[in-house]
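Researcher: Let's try something more involved. This one mixes different molecule types, so please make sure each is placed in the same coordinate frame as the others.
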Amino acid sequence: MKSLVESAPEFSTEATPVFPTESPILQVDNLTKVYTLGGNPLTVLRGITLSVKVGDFVALMGPSGSGKSTLLNILGCLDRPTSGSYYLGSEDVSIMSDDQLSDIRCRYLGFIFQQYNLLPQYTVVENIEVPLIYQGVKIDEKTKSRCESLASLVGLGDRLDHRPMQLSGGQQQRVAIARSLANAPSLILADEPTGNLDSSTSIEIMSLLRILNSMGKTIVMVTHENDIAAWSKRILRMRDGQIESDTPNVPIPIPAGLRLIDPNVLINIVGEIGEI
Amino acid sequence: MNPLTIGLLALLAVVLLAAVATEKTRKSTVLALRSLWLHKLRSILSMLGIIIGTTSVIALMSIGEGSMHDALEDIKRMGATNIIVRSVKPPEDSSKRSFVALYGLKYDDMADFATIPSINRLVPMRVFPQEVRRGNAKHNSRVVATRPEYSEINQLDLFKGRFLVQDDDFLMRNVCILGSTTASTLFPFQDPLDKDVAIGQFIYVVVGVMKDRMPTGGGGGSQAAEDFNDDIYIPLNTARTRFGETISIRSAGSRSAEKVELHQVTLTVSDIDLVRPTGVIIEEILNNPRKHPRKDWALTVPLDRLEQAEKTKQRYSRDLGLYASISLLVGGIGIMNIMLATVTERTREIGIRRALGAKQRDIVTQFLIEAMVQTGIGGMVGVAIGIGLVFLLPTMGQMPWMIELFGPPGPPPILHQESILWALSTSIGVGVIFGLYPAFRASRLDPIEALRHV
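Model: All components are placed in one shared frame. Result:
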């Protein structure tokens, strides 16, 4: 067998049952967002219309203040649009209550942040468990071994009981990626996932995201670095709250010789935990 | 176990169950314990108010319980569980005037009393003044003809020898026990044991001498002050055979005679709560007009004093509990303060949890549990210290510097068990009440803002 990174793009993509392959996983229509700052309305998003298909890997780019983070927050159900509709799968998320949004977040979405945002009091495994807890899943040996497998998947199988403080930035971000996979999400939202990392670690993380994408995960990623956007399949550029350009991209290949984990291990893990 | 206690117990059980019921709450409990352990000094400082509060609740309640127990024991020594029925000479009936006054309680009445199940001791007695002689020495004593149980109900202590025994009564022995004054008058500088005294025409052998005893105060109503030191005790049956039912009394030149079967019956009731109902039953029995056409008896229930004491006790406990609750309240404010600081400190964590799917109520629950774990543990530590104090205080009170500071030690505290439950549930309740506001504030945070928080 070839090394994992070379063989990665050939992984079969299994459709998630909730969202059929050909239909868009998210559909945004004429979305606006207006903040009120000191009594003055501040329009951040001016009519965004966007559709993302299952299995896509979208990079959202743009200068600061262009509204890309706001859009990602709305896509991540952390914020609600002022007007316009947002369908996630077949559900209109823009009119949901706070509790319903929480439910959507913990069932269908995975988050990766620039700041990693791990819980410092928890170990690696416990951090990965958090989304499952809020799903109301009973934590038992099965879920525990699933979380351990996810940690192995991102190459941290030997650091299960470490706390975030004991890990490097790249390792913390890998824990965050494993955590974003815990609830087998349909959509992964990444907010500058490599923003705090050096270039070689960035390559590791992006390779990992590429592998996940090739395994069928839809990813929407905010970045302002062209090098990072180059890993995606589609690049959206934003300016002043509007989409300036929307171009398909041929993702750069995962560098040969970069061995994240043993492919046999990966196959075993995927076979073991089924859907990630 | 009163209903309040049971209610509090149930509340505690519910809280404990809730803390381990679901995955979320269990995680929150573990997390709360872990962060307590992580910030030991801060935890101790923030829990200090609760610790001091519960300690003082338990210590104060126990000290109160101890001194009240002491006071109650005092009253009980005076006979709180006793009911005293005595014969009272009715107003002279001018129509049939006779030389011998005939009135009072009968053996028959006593047999009736004996059928009341709540009574576990009946002590009949005849009390009449007689002159006791020993050689040339004379003493105007009060002859008390009674049964062996008399010394128990009256808390008399023997100086030497023995008190009456059952056989004295059955065999109608001529034995007597002297009160301390009687003894010292008849036997100055001598040991009275095994010597003889004369009462009326008969000779009695002294078998015991009582210790000096403080006379009881005439505690309200018909109970007269009694000086036990002038007494001389003889068996009841002996008195019946030697003196007969009619007793002539010579005093200050006049002579009178009376026929009274029993002067007094002291009844001991098995439980203090049964004293009043038993008193009512006795009254019913004695109100029978065929047996007692005139009211020639009086009933004394020393419970009045006891009830007063009980009321004092309740007021005392309530006040002490109130003072101690103030420190619990202050402790609660401390907890709220620290929880608000925690919420600010952990804003980012709240954002992360919200992003990962925590609902607002999950956040509320988490912070509430955290506050409750703090106050609960503070409460438990306080209870432990409080119990420790209760057991240490009697020893500490004996230390010279303690005596110098606080004077001689009071009665030893008695662990007030309900106060443990009370203090624990109050401290957890304080956690809930003072944790609510910080918890709600945490849950209202905007997840995006919270995530951006440094």
